Each structure stands twice: as structure tokens, then as C-alpha cells.
Amino acid sequence: MLFITFTLACIHFKCTSGSKQLIKGDYTVVKDEFTIVMEDGIVLDALSYIPKDLKKPNGLPAIIYCHGFGLSKDSDDASLKDQAEFGYATFSYSMRGQGKSGGVSDIITRRDAQDLINVVNYVKSLPGINDDRVCIAGGSQGGIVPFMAVAMGMDVRCLITDLATPDFASSWIENNSIKLTLLLTLSYDNTKVRYSDNALKFKEWILSGNAYNYQQLFEEFRTNRDFTEIIGNIKIPMLISNAWQDKFFNTTGVIDNLGKFGVFNKLYFGTMIGHGSEVSQDELRYRRKLTDEWLRVWLDDIDGNTINTNLCTYVSSSFPVNDNNWTWKRNYSDAYPFEEIENLKFYLHPGGRLAFTPNESSIDTLSFINEVSTSLTLKQAVNLEFTGNEFSSKFHRSEIIFFSDPFVEDYTMLGAPVVDLYYSSSASSMCQFNLQFYEVDKYGNNKLITRANYTDIFATPYSHRNITFKGQAHSHIFKKGNRLKVIVTNLDNTNGDIFLRTNPFVLPVLESARNYIFMNTSQTSTSVILPILKR
């Protein structure tokens, strides 16, 4: 049995009224626990808080909370009670395979979205509920499921979704690289999640470290999960919030599809609780204000100045660093700022240089060794949390470091870095290239900004290949006089990561090989591109 000491951060979605949070609501509420039967016979455990003796001509507006993975209907109990005291009918339920609900979890599929549609229809049918004023709110699994459900035709007034993206399954296995958080999501004990046989099969494939099993995973895992092809069906307003440093899902899934969905969307990209991002108290207060206004606008028909202005809010990290956290600057835009981007391109040079022009020296190749003992299995590495004497004796972390010249002006990155990689490997099966992007100040202080990962699961020994791939989206302000540092490594972990600790962002390849990076002409020179806001 896989033993994992790593603790996943689960999302407790809280709708806290900015204007009311310092006072108690006026209404006495009644709590009720009940069940809802799905059309396939699975019974879902549910909960409600209803304001006592409150009647409205068209019925009460309702909020349905969706919980994070491994949690239950009780996870948001305090928020349900709080909002009910201010006049909303509030509901939550445990998703199948979690809490006290029946069935098994197949890891966030359209079956879960259909369950939510059924729950919504049940709530709308209740006496005293305004069926035209229903909001769904949640984060992580609790944000993905309603996002998917409205794309499938769920009819509600509005949506509040955190840490969710329409290509979440692809994001977990991005560029053929399996994020550690996918394996951990498949590894809860059965007191929290009862898995389907299909989900358990995915876990076995991942732990095998086998290229053919990985190929099957990549083909099957996206099916019935990603829903980018149907987001054009969404016709309701959505408040969408994502975190740049999300260790589960890349925000590019929302960014790349902005023009495809919704009649009115309010967007936030920055820092949030959950999935390993940094937390800013200023940003928490700002998002509480957004959430409060969103509910008042769409459920209570009260105008909200914050909602009606600034289509997109994005927060940029920058030096100085305090308590290992970036300084964060909030920015506002009445349009999608991702359309106002130009490329800042750096070529990799021998000698560890990053330059704006390609390398023309006779030295045109750098390499690093992926040195792994044949006795090391992925299961062992995970259980050792990729650290300690036993792990270090069987896996050697290698890296090549590149530095740019000092920046001559400030630059604001917005979006995902792009890597144009020319490479070769002695591997007969799999090889991997992980790039970490840092800013280094004039005193030598440095901190990770973002990363990009690529795994070749069917490498041909010593064949020359080219691949262009995106990394994890982020917004960051590079300061004049500071430098960009890029590390190419076989194990994508970092010091001081509170969330991942010693674990890597993506699972490494356990096949010994020498991996080569080519940088010889403008046609075959490896480069990295930062998306920079136009001035």
C-alpha cells in the first residue's frame, strides 16, 4: 500500500459578506439533513439552512455549496449558516464516493456534474425557493463540477468558481508530465474517498513508471473530464478566480478559452488559499468583497460598483520578498490584458548565459545526467518524499543554470512562458526536461517564479527532436538591474516550498540517461520566451 505523508490542501469555500461580516444576520435559521436519490439509485447526503419564517413573493434566493475533494457536505457548514442568517436558503451535499454519500468517485467526471444538475433541480422544486435566483459556489473539485455542469446545460442564475479550469485533466498531465498532486489525489484513504476501479487503475499506471501505461493514462484520463469543447454552451455570469502558483491546475486553461464562454464573466488571477499558492491578506479581503457584491448583484438585484467595472483583476508578484512570500501588486483591466502581450526571447548559451541573440560559438551542446539506480521504484521515491540518504543514494539531482544580463528596465510578465527545446537523449524509453524560472536581485537573493515541464515518453536514443511547450502561467514584475535565472533539472523541486516540501512538482523519470540541449544556430537554438505586457 502506498503510504503518503504529504498533506493535500483542500478548499473550504467561504462566501463572507464584506458589508455584513462584522455583524450577525437578522434571521433565525433551521438546519435540516436529508438525502437526494440520483437516477442511477445512488443516494447523496445533503444539508440545508433555511431562514425561519422568512417569506419573499418570488421565494428565497438560494446558494448551493460544492465541496473540495475528500471533504463532505459539512465542510462549509459555518458558511451555510452565516449566509442563511442574512436571508439566503443555503444547501450543500456530499459528492458520490465522499462523505456519507453512496457510490464511488471516478475523480471529477461528467457523472459528478450530472449529480449537481439533479441537486439543483431538486432545490428549485422546493416550496419557498426562487428557482430563478440560484447560485452555485465552490473551489477545486467544488469549482470544476459546477463549471462543467453549466457547460452541460445546468440552468442557474450565476456561478462562483475558484481554482478550476475546463482542461483540468490535461493540466494534471501537462506536456506528458504527471503532477505529483494527481497521484496524491488518487491516494486518499477510504474514510475520505471511495474510489472507482477506474481511478485505482490510473494510480497503478502512474506508479508503474512505464511509458505504455503512461500513454494509456494520457489517452483515457482526459475522457469525460476535460470540457473545453462545450464551454461555448455557457450562458450564465461567472465569477472565476484562479491562483498563479496553483500546484494542481495551470490557469492557461481559463486564459486560452476566455473568448468562448459566458455572457458576463468577472475574472481574478492572483493569490488564493489552496493548491499551494501564497496567501495575501489584502487579496483575501478583496476577493471577499468581490464575492459579496456578486451575490448582491445576481441574487438580490442590487448594483455593485466593483462587479460592473474592471473585467479582469490580476495580481503580479515582485521583489521584495517577506517571510518567503512575494510582494503582490493588484492590477485592473476593462479588457482581457492577455491580448496585449509581446515576447521577450532569451536563447540558451554554453557557459550558462541567456542572451537575446542565438549562440554562434563552436560549443553548441550542453548536457545533464539523469542518474538513477535500477532498484529505485516510483513508489519508493514517493514514500521517501524524494529526500534522505536512501533516496539520494539512488537518484542524483542534476541541473544546468543559466543567467541573463541585468534588466535595463522593468518588465511585467503576464501569462505562460514558452520553451522551444531542441534536444536529444541516450534514453531508450523516457527522458524529461524541467525548467525553473527565477528572478535574482542585485544582492544575489533569488526566488522561484514559475516553471515549465516536458516528458518524452517514447524517446528514441540520440535522435534530434524539437518540442515547443508552455509552462505555468504567472504574472511577475522583473525589476531593473535584476536578472533572470533558468535552471534545467531532472527533479523539479525547490527549497522552502511549504506545500510540496521536498517533493517535486512533476514525477521524475527513473531511467538513467544523458540528456542533451542544442544551441548552435538560430534554426536549432533552444530558447525561452517570457510573455511581457506591451508598454
Explain the overall architecture:
With 535 residues, the chain is an alpha/beta fold. Helix content is 20%, strand content 32%. The longest helix has 19 residues.
Q: Tell me the total number of β-strands.
A: 24
Query: End-to-end span in angstroms?
Result: 55 Å
| Spatial shape | globular
Number of helices: 12
How would a crystallographer describe the biggest sheet? 12 strands, mixed
What Rg, in angstroms, do the CA atoms define? 24 Å
What is the overall pLDDT average?
Answer: 93
* Percent range for β-strand residues: 25-35%
Oligomeric assembly: single chain
Helix content: 10-25%
Structural class category: alpha/beta
Low-confidence stretches: 3-22
Strand and helix layout:
Blueprint: E1 29-37, E2 43-51, E3 60-66, H1 77-84, E4 89-93, H2 110-125, E5 129-139, H3 141-151, E6 158-162, H4 168-172, H5 180-185, H6 197-208, H7 211-221, E7 238-243, H8 252-255, E8 265-270, H9 281-299, H10 305-308, E9 312-322, E10 325-333, E11 341-349, E12 353-355, E13 365-372, H11 378-383, H12 388-394, E14 395-396, E15 399-404, E16 411-415, E17 418-425, E18 431-440, E19 446-456, E20 465-470, E21 474-478, E22 483-489, E23 513-518, E24 527-533
Parallel strand pairs: 3-4, 3-5, 5-6, 6-7, 7-8, 8-9, 12-15
Antiparallel strand pairs: 1-2, 2-4, 9-10, 11-12, 11-24, 13-14, 13-23, 15-22, 16-21, 17-20, 17-23, 17-24, 18-19, 18-22
Helix pairs in contact: 2-3, 6-7
Question: Which key features would you list for this structure?
Answer:
535 residues; alpha/beta; twelve-stranded mixed β-sheet; ten-stranded mixed β-sheet; 12 helices; globular
